TrEMBL record, chains A, B:
One function term, GO molecular function aspect: DNA-binding transcription factor activity
Lineage: Bacteria, Bacillati, Actinomycetota, Actinomycetes, Pseudonocardiales
Domain of life: Bacteria
InterPro entries noted in UniProt: ArsR-like_HTH, HTH_ArsR_DNA-bd_dom, WH-like_DNA-bd_sf, WH_DNA-bd_sf
Pfam families cross-referenced by the UniProt entry: HTH_20
Family annotation (CDD domains): HTH_ARSR (cd00090)
Domain HTH arsR-type: 1-91
Record-given protein name: ArsR family transcriptional regulator
Length: 117, 117
DNA sequence: TTCTTTCACAACCAATTGGTTGCATACGAC
DNA sequence: GTCGTATGCAACCAATTGGTTGTGAAAGAA
């Protein structure tokens, strides 16, 4: 349970059902029972999924009479985007340097067209 | 093993060690032994982690004598970014609509905010 | 050839996960 | 108060995961 936030978010979204739930919540808040409707699993199972999303900070719960509607906290997604983009960019830059090196290597034979998209 | 690619990528990056390995690979290709160096786990354990990354399509292997260097396939990260951004944007738009509705609400009456389903 | 290095595969074990069911609780209706 | 709905919590089970060790294959070096 003591995993870092980023791992929790990644793990939470590794399950197709939970990604589905997140997608569903972009359309509007929903109770556990409403979320469980499309699936043929028990509401308890969905409740567990929601708890995972909640622990990851992706979902917050409200209170409306007996219902406790789930609300998507989309900002947490930025955590992942930040991580991904960081290393995506690092990899890209490395590839660019590598390409440049190769181009320099073959300078006499094949001048490199600027293929750095 | 029959999970969809997106789930595999999310699950692969849910482990801090594997995220570390990916980060390490942005600096350059590396063998399993080199990757295992900083950790106090067996090379076999690292080999398993690499296999997970490989199954997710994040890493490809080469051949250099006995060494089988790991190479980062960064394009797969775009899969995740696409998913995240899609729902991030959907959530943002919904919030904007909600805000607009609330602003309208203050100007006139109260036309039931939660009934957008 | 034999030795060493690098690594994958198989078997095994402990911990976690995703599901179940049953019971308890919170709230509104009666 | 009692009843019904929505939900959480605990216990349990099967499957998966992350680690281990042992064996063995592939590719050079001696």
């Amino acid at each position: 349970m003591a995993a870092d936030r980023l791992s929790q978010v990644f793990a939470a979204l590794a399950d197709p059902t939970r990604r589905d739930i997140v997608a569903r919540l972009t359309l509007g808040d929903a109770s556990v029972a409403e979320l469980a409707q499309p699936y043929d699993v028990s509401t308890q199972a969905v409740s567990k999924h929601v708890k995972v999303l909640q622990d990851a900070g992706l979902v917050s719960r409200g209170r409306d009479a007996q219902r406790r509607p789930c609300h998507l906290e989309a900002e947490v997604l930025d955590l992942m985007t930040a991580w991904i983009e960081r290393y995506r960019r690092a990899a890209d830059e490395r590839f660019r340097r590598l390409d440049a090196l190769l181009a320099q290597d073959q300078n006499s034979e094949r001048p490199e067209p600027g293929a750095a998209s």
